[in-house]
Amino acid sequence: MNIYDISKKTGVSIATVSRVINGSANVSEKTRSKVLAAIDELGYTPNVFARGLGLNTMKTIGIMCADSSDPYLARAVYHIEQDLRKNNYDSLLSCTGYDHDVKEKCMTMLLSKRVDAVVLVGSNYIEKDEQQNNYIKNAADTVPVMIVNGVLNTPNVYCTVCDDRAAIYEVTENFIRSGRRDLLYIYNSHSYSGTKKLDGFRAAAKDAGIALPEERMHFINSHNVTVQSAKQAVAEIAEKGIKFDGVITSDDIIAVGVLKYARDAGITVPDELFVAGYNNFDISECCEPELTSVDNKLETLCRHCVSTLMDILSDDGSLPKKTVFSAEIIERSTTKFTK
Amino acid sequence: MNIYDISKKTGVSIATVSRVINGSANVSEKTRSKVLAAIDELGYTPNVFARGLGLNTMKTIGIMCADSSDPYLARAVYHIEQDLRKNNYDSLLSCTGYDHDVKEKCMTMLLSKRVDAVVLVGSNYIEKDEQQNNYIKNAADTVPVMIVNGVLNTPNVYCTVCDDRAAIYEVTENFIRSGRRDLLYIYNSHSYSGTKKLDGFRAAAKDAGIALPEERMHFINSHNVTVQSAKQAVAEIAEKGIKFDGVITSDDIIAVGVLKYARDAGITVPDELFVAGYNNFDISECCEPELTSVDNKLETLCRHCVSTLMDILSDDGSLPKKTVFSAEIIERSTTKFTK
Questions:
Q1: Testing the interface with A: which of B113, B252, B280 to mutate, by most A Cβ within 10 A?
Q2: pLDDT in tens, B56-113
């Protein structure tokens, strides 16, 4: 809804609507009443007034992330905000949680604050049920929408992702080449990126001719996995009598839980058990042995996202709708890969 | 600046100023011009128009934190947003960095988005130079300002803090009672809370009659200490020939760096060396041995901050300007305290 809608609704010219909004005296009382009634009826928000007032940009970008206490998301937000600031844009962050209705509400709220664009951080925003993504498509009618590590193919939406599938495929390949065949994959997200990682694990095992019963892919149903809950999960798998000599995980914290389990169970890492994390964050260097992990090039993703956005906002020609960066395996002491 | 300033400046009644802002016709052209000129001159922002329009609340709270990738700050923001959402308030987060001018700019930006209050998270907002805090005092003229883990004594500012001084005092006391006398304190912040912690260390040593040359209090000049940089710092202290059997730190990550140093140097923890962290975050359970740390009751602080704010916004009588919660020492395997 904007000044044009008011004009259309009332049959009053845009210039006159603008004069009413500006409180100018050069408007008849009858016209003024009509415009104010339309404003009331259409549920005008103050930001639209401001747009009407000619303040077309506040140089502010809205950022949405599910959970600021998730280290991956928090770091991404940090990089994006730093880069936006370098480009003289302010950021407004809304932490939406994982509930669809709240996400939608937060989007509406950010748009009402007259942001110039919205950046969605993390793959939790893209739902398999296409209907659930409509609020993103609608937002893209108004402002450019950037997605970091998620893909939605729709006009005015720009996606920057890491090739998580290829990364987990490569980790798994390394495990297998090094003689590990009793593999486990432990993960805690069905998001876009979570699905890609699982695909990579399955594909690598399949391509190597390794059977993979479902029980070897264990889902921890929590967005906030702790070392303790991950340790518990792997202990329960072992109790079921499932043997494993390699554990690949979707997140460093899960891998640290596996290391804690191994230590208690007297299992030597990496000799008896290979363990790999994902994200390559601080904790991969905090644990003992230090963790082999995947650097998903988060900073590169965020940089690219912001620079693309800056190009969009300055109308710099046609830009790629999707960019994919490859990840890098950082081998530390929880694996001993055969080269 | 608000409607009262316009009234004062022009000598026009508040009701009339409001009528001008509302675009009402019942105002003489002369008065309207005078008010509009004052609005222009005082640099009125659209939010004030919106307030004038009677849209007094958007149920949105502005949050400022220095760095969303700092786990302490990220977790605090998370708790505050969750609690605000439960109270049907949206949050707008601005990550300001540590530069004073940017902090001030972010405050202005949040106020221009018509937030109902501002929450400052972390003690980095309170400067020793009182002048630097003026922008907070000015903001408090417009909306309530809540500070989590920082103190500023000024009207309409409400502070919730953890007694970090007492916590470090108690940790140090425990080290000394357990026979450790060659103590080091390693820290990386001169913020309000950073200063309190250092005070606690000094006081406990002094009260126990332990001499404390300056070299035993080591400052790491970085907001983003890593395990590696902390390890490096403690290695350099050791190279200078400074002996130590107990290291107390202002942050878990520094303590993990000390553990890594000890492991490389063949020093047994806790037998030859006690180590204590602060914050009691994930990484205190990731490292080996698991880290004795201080639970600073962050969730309690944040809960209290939001509930106080809700009381303020519903005009619920007179509220305490400052609330102090005590911390709790969580002993794990890097110390063996004599009870």
A1: B113
A2: 567 899 999 998 888 889 999 999 999 999 999 989 999 999 999 999 999 999 998 8
Q: How far is A78 from chain B (nearest CA, A)?
A: 6
Average pLDDT over residues B253-266: 97
Q: Measured at the alpha carbon of residue B257, what is the angle toward residues B229 and B196, in degrees to the nearest 5?
A: 90
CB atoms within 10 A of CB B31: 17
- Would you state the structure tokens that stand for residue B270, as one six-digit string? 């806790």
Place of tokens 């409607």: B3
Do the Cβ atoms of A283 and B286 come closer than 8 Å?
yes
* CB-based contact B134:B161 (threshold 8 Å): no
Q: According to the model, what pLDDT value does residue A1 have?
A: 53
Q: Is residue B303 within 8 angstroms of chain A, CB to CB?
A: no
Q: What is the DSSP string of B58-107?
A: --EEEEEES-TTSHHHHHHHHHHHHHHHHTT-EEEEEE--S-HHHHHHHH
Contact between residue A249 and residue A275 where contact means Cβ atoms under 8 Å apart: yes
Closest CA to B162 of B302, B319, B275: B302
- Predicted ipTM? 0.73
SS3 assignment, position B305: helix
Decide if A46 and B53 are in contact by the 8 Å CB cutoff.
Answer: yes
Judge residue B338's burial from the number of C-beta atoms within 10 Å of its C-beta, 0-12 exposed, 13-18 middle, 19 or more buried. Answer: exposed
A251: phi > 0 → left, psi -120 to 50 → alpha, else beta; which? beta
The answer to whether the Cβ–Cβ distance between A92 and B92 falls below 8 Å is yes
Whole-number percent of chain B with pLDDT over 90: 70
Task: Mark yes or no for CB contact A90/B106 under 8 Å.
Answer: yes
Cα separation, B219 vs B327, in Å, equals: 23
3-state secondary structure chain A: CCHHHHHHHHCCCHHHHHHHHCCCCCCCHHHHHHHHHHHHHCCCCHHHHHHHCCCCCCCEEEEEECCCCCHHHHHHHHHHHHHHHHCCCEEEEEECCCCHHHHHHHHHHHHHCCCCEEEEECHHHCCCCHHHHHHHHHHHHHCCEEEECCCCCCCCEEEEEECHHHHHHHHHHHHHHCCCCCEEEEECCCCHHHHHHHHHHHHHHHHCCCCCCHHHEEECCCCCCCHHHHHHHHHHHHHCCCCCCEEEECCHHHHHHHHHHHHHHCCCCCCCCEEECCCCCCHHHHCCCCCEEEECCHHHHHHHHHHHHHHHHCCCCCCCCEEEECCEEECCCCCCCCC
Q: Residues A185-234: pLDDT tens digits?
A: 999 999 889 999 999 999 999 999 999 999 999 999 988 899 999 999 99
Residue pLDDT, tens place only, B309-325 = 999 998 777 788 999 99
Tokens of B210: 């332990």
Helix (H), strand (E) at residue B135: helix B134-142
**Pairing mode, if any, of strands A274-276 and A60-65?**
unpaired
Cis bond upstream, residue B155 (ω within 30): no
Cβ A225 vs Cβ A253: under 8 Å: yes
Alpha-carbon span A90 to A62, nearest angstrom: 9
Put simply, the chain A residues between 229 and 258 with a CB less than 8 A from any chain B CB are: 253, 256
Residue A273 to residues A207, A241, A246, A255: CA-CA distances in angstroms? 22, 16, 5, 12
Could you identify the residue written with the tokens 């965020």?
Answer: A302
Q: Distance (Å, rounded) from C-alpha B216 to C-alpha A60?
A: 46
Picking from A20, A67, A75, the nearest residue to B23 by CB comes out as: A20
Cβ atoms of residues B22 and B4 within 8 Å: no
